[in-house]
Design a protein that fits this description.
It is a single chain. The protein is mainly α and 191 residues long. The protein has helices at residues 2-11, 16-28, 32-45, 50-62, 66-79, 84-91, 101-120, 147-160, and strands at residues 179-182, 187-190. It has a two-stranded antiparallel sheet. It is globular and about 55 Å long. Mean pLDDT is 77; it is low at 129-133.
Length: 191
């Protein structure tokens, strides 16, 4: 696939979507430096591309470069200021593995308060189509009780999916269930 993107770019080097898609491929195979270069080329061609900004922020986050990640997530928020999930996520960025129990506890307390804050507000959830944001990323740490955070996430998503707020078509008849997926290092909410 790499050779096809390179050929596409040799034919059309002014299409930011090709750079973005190529960078997504590079990111998926963990060629992070090359992905960053191509995301930045896409931004040079279109500095107001929400998806490129989010993708670039995500690469920096995966590399543990939280300041760079924060910078690009904030740029994405400027383009989509009503995206409450991105606000919650951005306000709670942390290193993938915090250095101490104190940092872990601070992260968890801050996440809990942020979820509460946005649950209490009215929000425009038409921006929630961005499903790649998990507000509970990095929750699970051995020996920690996540019940309060899970309950707050469930309350938030219940509000998000209520008929009053929902962007989901009224023709959708199946009930939604909120669950949590545990992997080796993280726990994430899903709908």
């Amino acid at each position: 696939a790499i050779e096809y993107y390179e050929k596409s770019l040799s034919i059309n080097s002014i299409n930011p979507n090709i750079y973005n898609n190529y960078a997504n491929l590079l990111n998926s195979i963990e060629y992070f430096d090359e992905a960053i270069v191509n995301y930045k080329k896409a931004l040079k061609l279109n500095k107001n591309n929400y998806n490129v900004l989010r993708n670039l922020a995500s690469v920096y986050e995966n590399l543990g470069e939280i300041e760079n990640a924060q910078k690009y997530y904030n740029e994405a928020l400027k383009l989509n200021p009503n995206n409450t999930l991105l606000k919650i996520y951005t306000e709670n960025l942390t290193l993938p593995i915090p250095l101490s129990n104190y940092e872990i506890d601070n992260y968890r307390n801050k996440l809990e308060k942020t979820i509460e804050k946005y649950t209490e507000k009215d929000f425009d959830n038409t921006s929630f189509i961005d499903t790649s944001i998990c507000i509970t990323a990095g929750l699970i740490y051995q020996g920690r009780n996540d019940k309060n955070i899970k309950e707050k996430c469930a309350t938030f998503f219940n509000k998000l999916l209520s008929p009053k707020n929902s962007y989901i078509p009224s023709t959708h008849t199946h009930p939604f269930k909120i669950g949590f997926v545990v992997t080796k290092n993280t726990e994430n909410a899903f709908i």
